[in-house]
Amino acid sequence: MATTHSELYDAIVIGAGIEGCFTSYHFAKNKRKVLLLEQFFLPHSRGSSHGQTRIIRRAYPEEFYTKMMEECYQIWAQLENESGTKLYRQAGFLVLGKKEEAEFRALWANLSKQGVEYKYLDSEELKRRFPNIRLPPEQVGILESSGGVLYANKALKVLQDLIRQLGGVIHDGEKVAEIKPGFPVTVTTTTRSYQAKSLVITAGPWTNQLLLPLGIQLPLQTLRINVCYWREKDPGSYGENFPCFFGLFPDLGLHHIYGLPATEYPGMMKIAYHHGNKADPDERDCPSASPDVADVQIVSSFVRDYFPGLQPQPAIMESCMYTNSPDANFILDRHPKHANIIIGAGFSGHGFKLAPVVGKVLYELGTKSTLSYDLTPFQIRRFYHLNKASL
Ligand SMILES: Cc1cc2nc3c(=O)[nH]c(=O)nc-3n(C[C@H](O)[C@H](O)[C@H](O)COP(=O)(O)OP(=O)(O)OC[C@H]3O[C@@H](n4cnc5c(N)ncnc54)[C@H](O)[C@@H]3O)c2cc1C
To answer: Does the beta carbon of 332 lie inside 6 Å of ligand 1?
Structure first.
């Protein structure tokens, strides 16, 4: 039987992935009493936020993400200063694709409009700058200089340390089993019950499990992603001086392949497919789960054809989860019936870099503060016409 903890928190945050950690950080930084609950002992590798690296970039087709990234870069730098830990390496970010391709054009136009520093590389220049990428002749590139690598695991650790230093409380190894809406909201874990003025749910691929008893299911797909590392034939050829990249190759039958330079594991470049296969987060690593060989084969053919300096068989394979919304945009909103329950979900495989601002707006929703951003693109109501959000 769970015992009740008498303190009234300003907020309880469920889930210590990057979104929940940044949310808790903003609560603690603003001198609010915050409790962050995590089902697994920290650190863990069962959700979406673990691993050594993530890509950071301003290059997006959507204006609202590029705008949010401005402040994200500032908060990432602030975090580096507060912790004395390097979390970002400016490696550059290279978008590869065809000039005529719609997504490529939208991204290019957006960067120009918002004054982001970038260089357009025609196919000749692309070949000259990156002789170890061998693309068909009509492919071009956009090189965004401020793009680069975020050190993901270090960021999680730094945030969790700062939350505690700022007076926040983190309980790991405590799975939330029940949420009783109301004011205050009551949250019961495997060991105790807690009360708070507001609740923020940032539970990644487990979000719908927590929302089901609260009468809502969001149109989220949980996908298992195979993260593959490819060994360099000539060590160092895709190392520190190589940028992160994102490829838009619909005409090659390849949508959204991305890669990071070989720094995480010595001599191995990370290249992965930005798509996965449906999977229950609790069964992600079951021995019976199929290894989704088709995805690995797609990346393997890509590496063989276009990255001739890499061995075309993965040297290491790891797993991670995406939680995709139908339009790949985030969900940052209140529960439609319980205004003090806030939901941050559907990060669709691109939520790490944006977590500083995600955490800030979830804090603002949780404290009824003035919102720093227009959250229209992130509202639950956008799914009503799909009839997929059951309310
Ligand atoms: C392979 C891969 C590559 C990626 N690359 C990039 C990139 O380059 N750039 C980028 O910006 N983004 C990238 N992303 C996306 C980014 O990592 C995710 O969007 C982000 O990590 C989502 O974080 P989250 O906090 O929502 O989820 P999670 O990290 O999954 O955190 C949710 C947490 O909630 C906890 N939880 C769930 N239910 C309960 C419960 N009942 N009680 C207590 N705790 C609970 C879970 O245990 C978990 O720790 C990538 C993702 C993957 C998988």
So the answer is: no
Is residue 82, in this structure, part of any structural domain at all? no
pLDDT tens readout for residues 223-275: 999 999 999 999 999 998 999 999 988 777 677 899 999 988 999 999 999 88
- In short, whether 60's Cβ falls inside 6 Å of ligand 1 is no
CATH number of the domain at 297, please: 3.30.9.10
Count of alpha carbons within 13 angstroms of residue 147, beta-carbon side: 29
Rounded distance from Cα 46 to ligand 1 centre (Å): 9
- Rg for the chain, CA atoms, rounded: 21
In the listed set 281, 304, 324, which residue is the last one of a domain according to the structure?
Answer: 324
Which ligand 1 atom sits closest to the C-alpha of 321? 53
From 275, 293, 324, the end of a domain falls on 324
Sorted by sequence, the CB contacts under 8 Å of residue 332 that are 6+ apart come out as 343, 344, 358, 361, 362, 365, 375, 378
Question: Angle at the Cα of 306 (from 304 to 310), degrees rounded to 5?
Answer: 55
Residue range 326-360, pLDDT digits in tens: 999 999 999 999 999 999 999 999 999 999 999 99
